[in-house]
Amino acid sequence: MFGTIIMDAYTIDEAKDIANFIEENCSPLDNWGWASAGIYSFWDYHTKEVLYIGLASDLTVRFKQHNGLLPIDDGACKYQQIQQYFADHKRLGYSVLVQSSLSQPIVHRNENLYRKFLDAPKGMPIPDYAGREGIENIKLAEGQLIESYRQVVGDIPPWNKIGGNIDSRTFASFNNYQLVVEAFSKGTHENFLMSRSTLRELAKNAKYSWFEIQLHGLRMMMLSRRMTFEEAISMQKQLNPSFEKQWSSIVDSKYLDKKIII
Asked: InterPro entries, per this entry (predicted)?
């Protein structure tokens, strides 16, 4: 399930580094961090305009395709738009809305792991019960977020060609825009869905990453049950006795006071 928005920005020479940071946080090859299936956004670092909202079953692979690090037809990615952007700008914003690792779907890179676990020979279909929720979530979320952008701004983001899943558009709201879409590029300290660390910080700092994984559970409750951050903390303490100690570690470290610096 969704809950955490993680921001970052990069120069054209840092694309490989960002791909590695995404992999460190959202790899389909382990159960640490978050699932590889999520929503992502490119945004103008200088004007904070959201340029594109997309979905990916494997965020690392999709980022590489967009940035020319993996081969794919230009019409199936935003490579040309990104190159044009970098011709006039030094840094490009990139943010992800991530899901729990429990929502990890079967993708090309982890297929062999599932085959081995399920003892399914190559060529035999793999029962795709694993992570089905994660795949459905990104389809629904993309449609809602693009539609919420259209409702507020008047059109879909400039790099998007279509509006996403049609059925999910009816659930779009101003809250979608304010809490998520606008936060992709203008994340504020007051928005508790925002990670207090960037992709690169989480990839390099295990303590920060651990904190954010604990906070992700609260954010899932906020979105799924429409709770405030404080209500989610109270509920989590009731449901999970060990969370009291985890929460004390976060509070004592003053991690929530950490500013997001992009």
From this structure: GIY-YIG_endonuc_sf (IPR035901)
pLDDT (tens digit per residue) in 159-207: 999 998 998 999 999 999 999 999 999 999 999 999 999 999 999 999 9
Nearest alpha carbon to residue 36 among 116, 98, 80: 98
Is residue 23 packed enough to be buried (19+ CB in 10 Å), middle (13-18) or exposed (0-12)? buried
Cα separation of 100 and 26, whole Å?
9
In the chain, where are the structural domains located?
A: 2-204
Q: pTM of this prediction? A: 0.93
Show the DSSP H helices in the chain as ranges: 15-25, 59-66, 79-88, 111-118, 132-153, 174-176, 182-186, 199-204, 206-225, 229-239, 243-253
Estimate the crossing angle of helix 206-225 against helix 229-239, to 10 degrees: 100
